[in-house]
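Practice set, problem 2.
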Amino acid sequence: MSASMSVVNDEILIEEVRSRSILYDKSHPSYYLREIKARVWREVSQALGCPGQGFTLRWKNLRDRYVKEKNKYIPSGSGYEAVLPRWPLMGIMSFLDPYIKTRQTSSNMSEEPLSSSLLDDTLPTTSVATSSSSLDNMLPTTSVATRDGVNVRFTFAFCV
């Protein structure tokens, strides 16, 4: 099958799905009812004149590709310049727009970088006591200065 023939078949499948909102609208009362959706997919199969269940997978692939292509053209704030869509089915699949929810992206970068003085104040320092007056003095301790200037001391004991 040639690529152009595939696009034509995809367009017919998309139109058949478009006319049956139960297959893409999660707010449809029967969207989560498997038996009813299976019956509707059989109707799509009959309308296309091809028996089988491969249409559900093809629809999922088309929908996923549409979402992926659509997300390429949403400004990310990264300075990336958007390019016009090249996928030939973008226009015909646009009926899905009200039913697709884009997820909020997040970043591991903070809005304001930490100053070096804050970093220096929060670094732990380790010291080992050399006095042998008590067991506590022989254990390694770590002191951490917090932002508000409070020193916190940790003592570690290891059993060997």
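Problem 2, part (b): a different protein.
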Amino acid sequence: MTSTKFGSVLFTVSILIVFILESAQGDVNLKHKNEPCVCVPFYQCTDDIAGEVVTDGRFLLDQRMEHPTFCNGPFDVCCNIGKIKPKPKKTRDSSVGSTNPQKCGYQEEDVLSWAASMLFQRPDKIFPPTYKCGASIIHKDAVLTAAHCLEEEGYYFIKTGAATRRIYSVTIHPEFEMGSLRHDVAVLSMKKMEDTTDGPMIACIPPVPNVEHNAECIAATFNSEMNQLEKIYVPYVDPVICTERLSTTRLGKYFELHESFVCAGGSEKDTCIGDGGNPLICPIPGQSGRYNQIGIVSWGIGCGKKGIPGVYVNISHVRDWIDGVMKILGKDDQVYKD
């Protein structure tokens, strides 16, 4: 090939690259098969015939679900080192927190009073149940968790303190979508607990979130090293502001936060893998020591990225559905409303 021809080809290729780069960076009003279109990264466009822009983050979300192993190495597995004698746990003092312990939403100072752990055991029962996700107590015999935590077939258990109880009924929201994680909520029912004078503390579920932007809320996160739940403080983020911040990530500028979600966080403190199903609680104005459950840990974009909030199920948005499930199960739906 002569130098003249080579230079001509190089110039043509350069012009093509510049055109592609400019097209990918802006809203280019193009037409494909007589339909208007816009240039976006391939993962922000559906792969069906319509080829529509992804606005709900479908298949781009990081689920807050525990992986099968805690090991980082590609060839490592988590191997049992035997039973370790557990540390003595602090017993609950009925005088702490609530002046009326019969009401929902009262939170003890050092622990998450109505957070629970959900364990999973494979159908073959070769290995004992292990931590899967979190949950929140809304009735002495029922909990809420994230629906995406229930994708595996097997046996599920709820652990609260020293007690572990098997789940016998799972009801997933009928509009749950695994791709976009919309309506990422499930009600789990346990075998009826015998009547006791000191039942579990129960979350309050408000009809509307009613939380101000930047209000200090509390989320539960799983500490794998300590094998226990811990609480972190995260600011509540207004949905409009949350949409703006998430639109700066791989979700793209066309992302729209669905009404079944709320947001919190955006600092180094954040929920992450293994925290799915855990509660997000915010203080009830004018009632010291009392909280509403505003959300359930659902998904995020990475973990602890500055300025990027975590995303939670909007509990108030699905409260009517929760009420209906509780009535079908024959359980009192007033306990999380008082």
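Answer key, part (b): The longest strand covers residues 130-139. The longest helix spans residues 3-25.
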